[in-house]
Amino acid sequence: MAPTVVKLGGSCLADLTDGWWEDLAAHGRGRPLVLVHGWSKPLKQLDARYTDPSAILRDRYGNQSRWTTPEVIEDIKTVSADLGKQVVGRLESLGLTARRLLGSDGLVGAGAGERWWWRGKELVELDNLVGPITRVDAEPLAGLKPGEAVLVTPLARNSAGQEVNTDADRAAAAVAAAAGAADLVLVTDVTHLLIDGEPVARIDAEAAAAFRDRKATGGMRKKLRAAGEALDGGVERVVIGSAPVTDLLAGRTGTVIART
Fold first, then answer.
1. Spatial distance between the Cα atoms of 184 and 167, rounded to a whole number of angstroms
2. How many CB atoms neighbour CB 5 within 10 A?
């Protein structure tokens, strides 16, 4: 049975209620779950330097990324290990069988990263341990059954053997495509995609891509990019929102993005 893939936003993970987790577990009893987590808020809580605007870089194409050094990778692993214990423990307390996978342990491979970044108004060459995902080994996710869940920490390993940071939304898209998932749910701290201030309940991939390139900014721009990549990879639909997973999948709230 194809899993449901759910990306847990790092900005909202700590704010998900008991009822939200109970809803996820209920869905997971009927269909396997693959969860991919972010870490933005826990990382900022770990060290104040991660709240400094200089910690975020922008590439030549306007995409934002965290400036990642080996020390940052270690901090990401520290907060992710703690998050993993919490999420796995919560799911197990609700009756699911759960385990955590570190993407850089062979699950996720990355290509060469961008070397030129804007810092303020200056374009400079930086060693930044960030890379685009080039492959996902779906073997560790194969054979999942209802009642089973895997939590993926979306670090990757590049061709030089280095651990690198990846965008968690795009990692979730790549994992969903590799796992043959029908649905990708991006759980975040906003209820809908907004276009011209109005909530959008449903949008096709072409219109979503056009909005992404024309008006979307920041986190939503990345989510729309991830949605397009997931759909291109064979996922049937992507849902963005802040509600329980069953409500999002039923279309009662959030924004559904489909190929047509």
1. 15
2. 31
Q: What average pLDDT values come out for the chain (260 residues) when binned by 10 residues?
A: 95 94 98 97 94 88 87 97 97 98 97 88 90 95 97 97 96 98 96 92 95 85 94 97 97 95
Other residues' Cβ atoms within 10 Å of the Cβ of residue 162: 15
Ranges assigned E (strand) in 154-227: 155-158, 163-165, 183-187, 193-195, 198-200, 202-204
Scan for tokens 């898209």, then name that residue: 173
State the angle between helix axes of 70-93 and 18-30 in degrees (0 to 180), rounded to the nearest 10: 80
**Residues whose CB falls within 8 Å of the CB of residue 121, separated by 6 or more in sequence, listed in order:** none
- Report the CATH fold assignment for 4-258: Carbamate kinase (3.40.1160)
Identify the CA nearest to 117 among candidates 125, 107, 129, 109: 125
- pLDDT at residue 248 in the model: 97
* Contact by Cβ (8 Å): 148, 96: yes
Q: What angle do CA 130, 231, 109 make, to 5 degrees?
A: 30
Phi/psi for 186 (5° steps) reads -100, 100
Closest CA to 34 of 108, 99, 94: 99
